[in-house]
C-alpha cells in the first residue's frame, strides 16, 4: 500500500502536465468530446452542422463571408481541421505569387480550403479538388457552389487520392500541375507525393504545399522531401488552426526536377 | 637583383614532388614564352589549371610522347654536364670568386631584360609572389629532374654550380627566356646548396631568405589572402625554413647549429606529443567533447562540472579512506572484540538480510562504514596511529579542502570571465557572437540557427515592447502571481516533508518492523519526488512571467535552490529532533547499564571472589542508541534513494520515453517525434542543482559516515557514464541552445553557499552535542574537539601546549581576527582600485584602437589610389610593349 504522502508528492507532476499540455487537452475536448456529444444529440455529422451554420449566416456568392462564417464556427462552436485563417493567409500569398493555372487539391473536406484556393486563382485557372468521403464531398460541393464558383473553375472528384492521381493524365487531360495543396490523410502525404513524382505531372517550378506537417505531422513525408533532393523546400511555422499553443507547420515545396 | 630573387626564393620548394610530365610542359611553355611575355597572367592561369590536373596526369606520366621528349631532354642535359665537367677540370678550384662576378653580371643582364616584368611584379606584390613562385617552380621542376640525372652520372659529387656556370657560358648566345632560365638556376642553386660550398655572401642571402620566411609565417595570419593561398604559402615557407635553417652557421659551429636546430625541433615535437598525451589522459575528455559538439557548450558545462566534482570527491575519498577507514580496519581491534564492534544478539539473526543491509543496518552498521564502529583507543597498531585525532582532523580537513578548492576555482573563473554588459549593443552582440562554434552536429546547428532567428525576433519584439510599454500592469500582475504560486508550492512541499518526517518518527517509536517498505522509506521518497517534480512546475509557472530566457533561467535556478534548501533543512531539523530523542534514550540506557553492571559484578562477587570475572560476550552487552551512527545512516539512505530515483527517472523519463516515441511513431496517428511527447531535453539547471545538493549532503554527513565520499565517488562515476549515454542516446538538443560562458562561476557560487550551509549543521552538532558514551572515536569525552586538547597535552612537549593555550587566549585571538578583517578590507579595496584602473586602461585601448582604425582607413585609401595609378601606368606600359612587339 503506497502511503498517501507519496501520492501527494505526485501532485506537482500532475499540475505540470496539466498546465504544459493544456492546449492538447482543450483540443481533445473540442475536437473529440464535443463532437461525439453533438453527434449523439443532433444526429447530424459535424460537417453538416457546419454547413447549416454557414448557410444561415453567410452571404451566398461571397467567398469571404463564407470563410468568415467557417472561422467563427470553428473558433466558437466546434473544431474542424480546416486550414484556418492564419495559415490560409500564407496560402493566399503563395497562390498570388505563383498564379497557377492548374491546381490540384487533395482533401477538400468540407470545402473551406477549396473556396480559399479558388478565390485566389487567376482568371481561367482550374482547380481539381479530390475528396474521398461521399458525405463530405456533397457538402463541399454545396459550399463551393454557394460561394459562386462554377464547374469550370472547381471540379470535385469523389475518389481516394491514390486512385485519382494515376488517372489525372488520362481521365482529366492534364499534363502539368502548377500547384498542389495537400490536406488529406497525413499518412498518404508521402505515397501521394511519390505518385505525383512518378506521374510526371510535376514540372520545374511546380509548387506543392502540405498542411499540418508538424501536428498531427507527416514525418515520412518530411523525410522524403529531405532526402529526395527534388525540391526546394521550407516549412512555414505557425500554430494549429483555431488553437494558440500547438505548433504546426506548412511545408512549401518547389519542384526542381532531377538535376 | 634582390627584388627579383627574393620573391623567387620564397617559392623554391615544391620541386621534387612533380613528375616528368611537368617538365615536358615546362619545355613547351618555354618555347611559347617568347611570344607570350606580356601575357604572363594568362600563362599563370594555365599553370593553375595544369596544377589542378596534375594529380590526374602524374598517374600516367609514362605517356609515349612525353617519354620521348624526356629522353631527348636528358640527352641534352648529359651533354651539357660533360662539357661542364671538362671545364671545371681545366679551371681548377679557385673559381668561386670569378664565378661570383660572373653570376652578378649575368644577373644584371637578366635583370635588365626583365625590367618591365619586374615593375609589374612589384606592383602586384600580392599575387606577384604567387606568380613568381609558379614561374620559379616551373623552372625548378625542370632542373630538379635534370639534377637527378646529374647525380646518376657523376655520383652526386657535381653540384648545381657547375651547371650554373655552364649555363652562363652559353648565355650570350641564348635568347631572353634562356636568360630567365639562368636566373632560375641560381635560385635552384640555393635549393640544392651544400653549405660547405657557399660563400659568405650567399650564406648571408640565404639567412635573409630564411628570416624572411620566418617573418612571413608569423605575419601570415594577418594577411588579406584567401585561405587556400595562405595554406600553400605556409606549407612552402615551413618546408623552406626547415630545409635551410640547418645550413646556416659557420665552420665547425655549423654542425652544432644544425644539431641544435634538430634538437629543438625534436623537443618541440615531443612537447606537442606530450601535450596530446596529457589531453588523452584527461578522463572522459572525448566523451565530453562529443557531447559538446552535439548539444552545445551548456550541456557540456554540466559534464565538466561533474568531472570536476568527481575529482574533488576522489580526494575526499582518498583522505577518509587512507587516514580513517584503512587504519581502523587494519590496525584497530577486529570485529567482535568489543561491544561497539559487534552486532547485538537481538539483531544477529537478521544482520545479513539484504533488506537490513540495504537500510544500512546489521553488519553494515557495525563496520568501518559508520562512526559507531570506531574505537576511542588513543593510538592503534605498531605505528601508534592516533585514530581519534586522525578522524577529527580528516573531518575538518575535508571541509577545509573543499572550501579552498571552491574559492580558488571561483577566483580563477572570475579572472577569466569577460567584461562587457549585455544591455548595450544588444543587436551587435546577437549578430556577431551568437554562434556557438563548438557545434558539430547538423541538427544542433539547425536548432542553433532557429534559436538565433527567434532570439532576433524576440529582441525586435522586446525593443518594440519597451517603446510601447502599455500593458506593464498586466505583466507585473502576472509576475507577482507567478511568485505567489511558487511560494505556495514551496510551502506545500515544505509542509509535506515536515508531515512525513513527523510520521516517520511515529513509525520509529512504534518499531519499524510493523510498517511496510513504502512507509519506512517515505521521507526519502517524498523528498526525491518533490525535488524532481517541483522544478517542472516552476518551469511551467515561469512561462507566465515572460522574462528573457537568461533571466528566467536565473529565477528558475533560484527557485529550485530555495526548494532544495527548504527540503534539506526540514530534513535536518527533523534529524535534530531525532538526535534529541536518542539522547534522552541514551540517558536512560546509560543508567540501566550501570545498574546492570553493578548487578553483574555484585553477582559474581557474591558467588566466588577468587574466580576470574565472568566473561560476557560483547554481543550481549547492552548499548546506547549512538545518535552519530543514526545520522550517518540517514544520510547514506538519503544519498542512495536519491541516486536510485535519479537513475530510475533517467531510465523511465528519458530512455523509455525515447524508445516509445521512436518505435510507436510507426503506428501512431500523429507525429510523436515532432509533436506531443517528443524526446526529452537535457535539463542543465536541474542536473547541476541536483549535483550541488548531493555534494552538500556528502559534506554534511561525511563526518558521521566515512563511507559517504566513497559512495559519492561511485555514484558520480556511474552517473558520468550513464548520463553521457543517456544524453547521446535519448535526448535532443535544446531548442534554446545558449552559451554556457559565465554560468560556471554561478554554479561555483551556489556550491559555495551550499558548502557553507551544509557545514553549518555539521559544525553545530560537533560543537554543541556531546558524543555518545559507548560508540565512536570520541566516546568518553565531553566534546568531540577535546581530542585536540588531549593530543596537545600528551603528545607534544609542555611548552607547546603552553604556547597554544596562550595563543588561544581571547586577548590574542580577537586582535588577530581584527587584523585579518583589516587585511581583507585592504585587499578588497586594492582589487577594486585595480579593477577601476583596468577599466580605464581598457577605455584607453579602445580609444587607441579607434585612432588606429582611422589611420588604417586613411592608409588603405591612399594605397588604393596608388594601386589605381599603378594599374593605369601598367596598362600603358603593356600597351607600349605590345606596340614594340608589333613593330
From TrEMBL, chain A:
Pfam families registered for this protein in UniProt: Methyltransf_3 (PF01596)
Biological process terms in GO annotation: catecholamine catabolic process; developmental process; dopamine metabolic process; methylation; sensory perception of sound
Transmembrane spans: 6-29
Molecular function as annotated in GO: catechol O-methyltransferase activity
EC nos: 2.1.1.6
Keywords for this protein: Catecholamine metabolism, Endoplasmic reticulum, Hearing, Membrane, Methyltransferase, Neurotransmitter degradation, S-adenosyl-L-methionine, Transferase, Transmembrane, Transmembrane helix
CC terms in the record's Gene Ontology section: endoplasmic reticulum
InterPro entries, sorted: SAM-dependent_MTases_sf (IPR029063), SAM_O-MeTrfase (IPR002935)
Top enzyme category: transferase
Record bears the keyword Transmembrane: yes
UniProt xrefs under Gene3D superfamilies: Vaccinia Virus protein VP39 (3.40.50.150)
Predominant place of localization: endoplasmic reticulum
Catalytic activity: a catechol + S-adenosyl-L-methionine = a guaiacol + S-adenosyl-L-homocysteine + H(+)
Compartments, record wording: Endoplasmic reticulum
Family (UniProt): Belongs to the class I-like SAM-binding methyltransferase superfamily. Cation-dependent O-methyltransferase family.
Entry protein name: catechol O-methyltransferase
From TrEMBL, chain B:
Extent of Basic and acidic residues compositional bias: 30-46, 58-77, 86-98, 115-125, 156-167
Keyword vocabulary terms for this entry: Membrane, Transmembrane, Transmembrane helix
GO molecular function: mechanosensitive monoatomic ion channel activity
Gene Ontology biological process terms from the UniProt entry: detection of mechanical stimulus involved in sensory perception of sound; vestibular reflex
GO cellular component labels: plasma membrane
Alphabetical list of InterPro entries matching this protein: TMC, TMC_dom
Places the protein is found: Membrane
Region described as Disordered: 22-200, 867-887
Claim: Cell membrane is one of the keywords in the record: no
Biased composition (Polar residues): 875-887
Family under the similarity heading: Belongs to the TMC family.
Protein name as annotated: Transmembrane channel-like protein
Record organism: Scophthalmus maximus (Turbot)
Gene coding for it: TMC1
Amino acid at each position: 500500500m503506497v502511503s498517501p504522502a507519496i501520492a501527494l508528492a505526485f501532485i506537482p507532476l500532475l499540475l505540470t502536465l496539466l498546465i504544459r499540455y493544456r492546449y492538447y487537452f482543450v483540443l481533445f475536448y473540442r475536437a473529440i468530446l464535443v463532437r461525439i456529444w453533438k453527434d449523439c444529440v443532433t444526429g447530424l455529422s459535424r460537417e453538416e452542422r457546419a454547413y447549416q451554420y454557414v448557410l444561415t449566416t453567410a452571404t451566398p456568392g461571397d467567398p469571404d463571408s463564407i470563410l468568415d462564417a467557417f472561422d467563427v464556427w470553428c473558433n466558437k462552436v466546434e473544431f474542424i481541421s480546416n486550414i484556418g485563417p492564419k495559415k490560409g493567409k500564407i496560402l493566399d500569398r503563395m497562390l498570388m505569387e505563383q498564379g497557377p493555372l492548374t491546381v490540384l487539391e487533395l482533401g477538400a473536406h468540407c470545402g473551406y480550403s477549396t473556396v480559399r484556393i479558388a478565390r485566389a486563382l487567376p482568371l481561367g485557372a482550374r482547380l481539381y479538388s479530390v475528396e474521398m468521403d461521399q458525405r463530405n464531398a456533397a457538402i463541399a460541393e454545396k459550399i463551393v457552389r454557394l460561394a459562386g464558383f462554377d464547374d469550370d473553375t472547381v471540379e470535385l472528384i469523389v475518389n481516394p487520392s491514390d486512385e485519382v492521381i494515376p488517372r489525372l493524365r488520362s481521365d482529366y487531360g492534364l499534363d502539368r500541375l502548377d500547384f498542389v495543396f495537400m490536406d488529406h490523410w497525413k499518412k498518404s502525404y508521402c505515397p501521394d507525393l511519390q505518385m505525383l513524382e512518378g506521374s510526371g505531372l510535376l514540372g520545374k517550378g511546380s509548387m506543392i504545399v502540405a498542411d499540418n506537417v508538424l501536428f498531427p505531422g507527416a514525418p515520412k513525408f518530411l523525410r522524403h522531401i529531405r532526402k529526395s533532393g527534388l525540391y526546394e523546400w521550407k516549412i512555414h511555422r505557425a500554430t494549429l488552426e483555431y488553437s494558440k499553443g500547438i505548433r504546426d507547420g506548412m511545408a512549401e515545396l518547389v519542384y526542381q526536377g532531377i538535376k | 637583383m634582390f627584388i627579383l630573387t627574393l620573391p623567387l626564393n620564397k617559392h623554391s620548394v615544391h620541386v621534387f614532388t612533380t613528375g616528368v610530365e611537368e617538365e615536358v610542359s615546362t619545355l613547351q611553355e618555354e618555347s611559347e614564352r617568347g611570344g607570350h611575355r606580356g601575357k604572363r597572367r594568362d600563362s599563370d592561369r594555365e599553370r593553375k589549371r595544369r596544377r589542378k590536373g596534375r594529380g590526374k596526369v602524374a598517374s600516367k606520366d609514362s605517356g609515349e610522347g612525353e617519354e620521348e621528349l624526356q629522353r631527348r631532354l636528358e640527352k641534352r642535359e648529359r651533354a651539357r654536364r660533360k662539357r661542364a665537367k671538362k671545364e671545371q677540370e681545366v679551371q681548377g678550384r679557385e673559381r668561386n670568386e670569378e664565378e661570383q662576378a660572373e653570376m652578378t653580371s649575368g644577373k644584371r643582364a637578366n635583370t635588365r631584360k626583365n625590367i618591365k616584368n619586374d615593375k609589374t611584379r612589384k606592383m602586384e606584390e600580392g599575387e606577384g609572389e604567387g606568380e613568381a613562385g609558379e614561374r620559379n617552380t616551373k623552372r625548378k621542376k625542370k632542373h630538379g629532374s635534370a639534377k637527378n640525372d646529374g647525380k646518376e652520372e657523376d655520383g652526386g659529387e657535381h653540384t648545381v654550380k657547375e651547371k650554373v656556370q655552364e649555363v652562363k657560358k652559353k648565355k650570350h648566345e641564348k635568347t631572353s627566356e634562356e636568360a630567365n632560365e639562368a636566373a632560375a638556376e641560381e635560385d635552384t642553386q640555393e635549393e640544392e646548396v651544400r653549405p660547405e660550398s657557399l660563400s659568405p655572401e650567399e650564406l648571408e642571402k640565404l639567412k635573409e631568405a630564411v628570416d624572411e620566411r620566418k617573418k612571413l609565417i608569423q605575419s601570415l595570419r594577418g594577411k588579406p589572402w584567401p585561405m587556400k593561398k595562405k595554406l600553400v604559402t605556409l606549407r612552402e615557407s615551413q618546408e623552406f625554413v626547415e630545409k635551410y635553417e640547418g645550413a646556416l652557421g659557420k665552420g665547425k659551429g655549423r654542425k652544432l647549429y644544425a644539431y641544435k636546430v634538430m634538437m629543438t625541433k625534436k623537443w618541440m615535437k615531443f612537447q606537442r606529443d606530450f601535450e596530446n598525451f596529457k589531453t588523452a589522459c584527461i578522463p572522459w575528455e572525448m566523451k565530453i567533447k562529443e557531447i559538446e559538439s552535439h548539444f552545445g557548450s551548456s550541456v557540456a558545462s554540466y559534464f565538466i562540472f561533474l568531472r570536476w566534482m568527481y575529482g574533488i570527491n576522489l580526494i575526499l575519498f582518498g583522505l577518509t579512506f587512507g587516514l580513517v577507514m584503512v587504519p581502523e580496519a587494519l590496525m584497530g581491534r577486529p570485529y567482535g572484540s568489543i561491544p561497539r564492534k559487534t552486532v547485538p544478539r537481538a539483531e544477529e539473526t537478521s544482520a545479513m538480510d539484504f533488506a537490513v543491509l540495504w537500510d544500512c543496518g546489521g553488519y553494515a552498521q557495525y563496520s568501518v562504514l559508520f562512526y559507531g564502529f570506531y574505537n576511542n583507543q588513543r593510538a592503534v597498531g605498531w605505528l601508534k596511529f592516533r585514530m581519534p585525532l586522525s578522524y577529527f582532523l580528516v573531518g575538518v580537513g575535508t571541509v577545509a579542502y573543499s572550501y579552498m578548492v571552491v574559492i580558488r576555482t571561483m577566483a580563477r573563473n572570475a579572472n577569466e570571465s569577460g567584461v562587457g554588459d549585455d544591455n548595450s549593443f544588444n543587436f551587435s552582440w546577437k549578430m556577431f557572437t551568437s554562434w556557438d562554434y563548438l557545434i558539430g552536429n547538423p541538427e544542433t546547428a539547425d536548432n542553433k540557427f532557429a534559436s538565433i532567428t527567434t532570439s532576433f525576433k524576440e529582441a525586435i519584439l522586446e525593443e518594440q515592447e519597451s517603446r510601447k510599454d502599455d500593458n506593464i500592469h498586466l505583466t507585473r500582475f502576472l509576475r507577482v502571481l507567478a511568485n505567489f504560486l511558487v511560494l505556495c508550492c514551496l510551502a506545500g512541499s515544505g509542509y509535506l516533508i515536515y508531515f512525513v518526517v513527523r510520521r516517520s518518527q511515529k513509525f520509529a517509536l512504534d518499531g519499524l518492523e510493523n510498517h511496510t517498505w513504502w512507509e519506512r522509506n517515505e521521507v526519502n521518497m517524498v523528498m526525491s519526488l518533490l525535488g524532481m517534480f517541483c522544478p517542472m512546475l516552476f518551469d511551467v509557472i515561469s512561462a507566465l512571467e515572460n522574462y528573457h530566457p537568461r533571466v528566467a533561467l536565473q529565477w528558475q535556478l533560484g527557485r529550485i535552490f530555495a526548494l532544495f534548501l527548504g527540503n534539506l533543512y526540514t530534513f535536518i531539523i527533523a534529524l535534530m529532533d531525532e538526535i534529541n530523542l536518542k539522547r534522552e534514550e541514551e540517558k536512560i540506557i546509560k543508567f540501566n547499564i550501570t545498574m546492570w553492571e553493578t548487578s553483574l559484578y555484585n553477582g559474581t562477587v557474591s558467588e566466588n571472589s577468587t574466580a576470574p570475572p565472568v566473561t560476557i560476550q560483547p554481543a550481549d552487552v547492552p548499548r546506547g542508541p549512538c545518535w552519530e551512527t543514526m545520522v550517518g545512516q540517514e544520510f547514506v539512505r538519503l544519498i542512495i534513494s536519491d541516486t536510485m530515483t535519479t537513475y530510475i527517472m533517467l531510465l523511465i523519463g528519458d530512455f523509455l520515453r525515447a524508445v516509445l516515441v521512436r518505435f510507436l511513431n510507426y503506428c501512431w496517428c500523429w507525429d510523436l517525434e515532432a509533436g506531443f511527447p517528443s524526446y526529452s531535453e537535457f535539463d542543465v539547471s536541474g542536473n547541476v542543482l541536483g549535483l550541488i545538493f548531493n555534494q552538500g549532503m556528502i559534506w554534511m554527513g561525511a563526518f558521521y559516515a566515512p563511507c559517504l565520499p566513497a559512495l559519492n565517488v561511485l555514484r558520480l562515476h556511474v552517473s558520468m557514464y550513464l548520463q553521457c549515454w543517456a544524453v547521446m542516446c535519448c535526448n535532443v538538443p535544446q531548442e534554446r541552445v545558449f552559451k554556457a560562458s559565465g554560468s560556471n562561476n554561478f554554479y561555483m557560487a551556489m556550491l559555495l553557499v551550499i558548502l557553507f550551509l551544509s557545514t553549518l549543521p555539521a559544525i553545530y552538532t560537533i560543537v554543541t552535542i556531546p558524543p555518545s558514551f559507548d560508540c565512536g572515536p570520541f566516546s568518553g569525552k565531553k566534546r568531540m574537539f577535546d581530542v585536540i586538547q588531549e593530543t596537545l597535552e600528551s603528545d607534544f612537549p609542555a611548552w607547546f601546549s603552553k604556547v597554544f593555550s596562550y595563543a588561544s587566549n581571547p586577548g590574542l585571538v580577537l586582535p588577530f581576527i581584527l587584523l585579518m578583517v583589516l587585511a581583507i578590507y585592504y585587499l578588497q579595496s586594492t582589487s577594486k582600485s585595480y579593477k577601476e584602473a583596468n577599466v580605464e586602461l581598457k577605455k584607453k585601448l579602445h580609444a587607441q584602437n579607434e585612432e588606429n582604425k582611422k589611420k588604417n582607413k586613411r592608409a588603405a585609401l591612399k594605397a588604393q589610389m596608388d594601386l589605381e595609378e599603378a594599374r593605369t601606368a601598367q596598362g600603358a606600359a603593356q600597351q607600349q610593349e605590345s606596340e614594340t612587339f608589333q613593330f
